[in-house]
């Protein structure tokens, strides 16, 4: 039975071949420069896809929350890093997990460091998150007072172990000058490593963002790479030049429920609860919530004449359709939608259907 025969409502499809190619490409890039790839698993959030990653020498992952870390525990990862400024209300939960799983957290202030030092009963590693220009979170790269206060607090505990510095240059999403941002980021991490390596000879530096890690070829003396979205990619990444549309490895299968030939629109069952509401806006101000692909027995085909979701509500999606698409589709058919932001779409859907008809788990719930 074809995987298409299993679909009656919005369903997130995954192409294992493309996903594996994406993982392998990034793993090869890291390996060629002597870097460790520690992917951010907020995109895939899956045990099964984690097994695929292991085939390419990946032994550690990053989680976006303690909830995701908990889901990933017991799967053989050498370490799971929680890359979010640690929430001290979750200390007991962290301590329980650390009894059986190697974990590390992100610290951005001395209060958190002191709380963990006073309350942990099992070993937990930590990175100090550094802000070198993004401005979302982290200790400013020149704020040595705060860095050293965090380090002093951690030394009062045998259970809180400093691992190094983590930097997420998220502003690569908003500028074409990714090389400039990476030069700034590499300089920041090099300076910190030089300053603190004599006291902490084993410290490592990690940088993580998909746009930069996808296009950059020289990561200097950074030790570890931690991108996440590269596992699936999406239209936002394609727009920024991180990938081709052919590299996007997930798409949302949606049923056609109505066709309006006068308006050249197709109504589908697929909306904000399936795709989230991330949007791209073109130079004319047109909103794009996802682009249409044609589904077939082998996966999907990118259309020569572009059709796209012009609007979405909770369950509805309205496609602005090309003439060729209108001529080929009928009510009851399935269309595919390449997501704007694959991480959010996967989170909304909570499971994947592979092209060989198997359900693949996701932390938010599986079939």
TrEMBL record:
One of its GO terms (molecular function) is D-serine ammonia-lyase activity. Keywords: Lyase. The keyword Nucleus does not apply. Transmembrane segments: none annotated. Residues 14-232 form the Alanine racemase N-terminal domain. One of its GO terms (biological process) is D-serine catabolic process. It holds the Pfam family Ala_racemase_N. SUPFAM superfamilies: PLP-binding barrel. It comes from the Bacteria. Residues 252-353 form the D-serine dehydratase-like domain. Belongs to the DSD1 family. This is D-serine deaminase-like pyridoxal phosphate-dependent protein. It comes from Algoriphagus boseongensis.
């Amino acid at each position: 039975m074809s995987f298409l025969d299993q679909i009656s409502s919005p369903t997130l499809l995954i192409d294992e071949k493309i996903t594996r190619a994406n993982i392998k490409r990034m793993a090869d890039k890291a390996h060629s420069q002597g870097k460790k790839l520690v992917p951010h698993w907020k995109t895939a959030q899956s045990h099964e896809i984690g097994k695929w990653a292991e085939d390419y020498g990946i032994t550690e992952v990053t989680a976006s929350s303690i909830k995701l870390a908990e889901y990933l525990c017991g799967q053989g990862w050498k370490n799971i890093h929680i890359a979010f400024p640690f929430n001290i209300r979750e200390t007991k939960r962290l301590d329980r997990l650390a009894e059986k799983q190697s974990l590390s957290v992100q610290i951005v202030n001395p209060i958190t460091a002191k709380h963990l030092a006073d309350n942990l009963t099992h070993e937990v590693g930590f990175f100090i998150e550094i802000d070198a220009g993004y401005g979302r979170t982290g200790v400013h790269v020149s704020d040595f007072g705060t860095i050293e206060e965090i380090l002093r607090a951690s030394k009062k505990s045998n259970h809180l172990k400093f691992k190094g510095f983590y930097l997420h240059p998220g502003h690569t999403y908003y500028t074409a000058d990714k090389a400039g941002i990476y030069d700034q980021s590499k300089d920041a991490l090099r300076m910190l490593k030089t300053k603190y390596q004599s006291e902490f000879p084993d410290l490592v530096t990690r940088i993580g963002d998909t746009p930069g890690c996808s296009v950059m070829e020289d990561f200097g003396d950074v030790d570890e790479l931690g991108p996440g979205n590269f596992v699936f990619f999406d239209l936002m990444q394609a727009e920024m030049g991180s990938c081709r549309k052919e590299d996007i490895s997930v798409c949302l299968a949606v049923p056609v429920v109505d066709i309006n030939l006068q308006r050249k629109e197709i109504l589908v069952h697929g909306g904000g609860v399936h795709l989230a509401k991330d949007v791209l806006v073109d130079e004319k101000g047109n909103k794009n919530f996802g682009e249409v692909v044609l589904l077939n027995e082998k996966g999907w085909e990118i259309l020569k004449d572009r059709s796209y979701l012009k609007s979405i509500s909770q369950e509805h999606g309205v496609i602005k359709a090309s003439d060729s698409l209108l001529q080929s589709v009928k009510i009851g058919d399935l269309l595919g939608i390449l997501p704007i932001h694959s991480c959010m779409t996967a989170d909304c859907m909570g499971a994947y259907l592979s092209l060989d008809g198997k359900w693949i788990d996701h932390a938010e719930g599986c079939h």
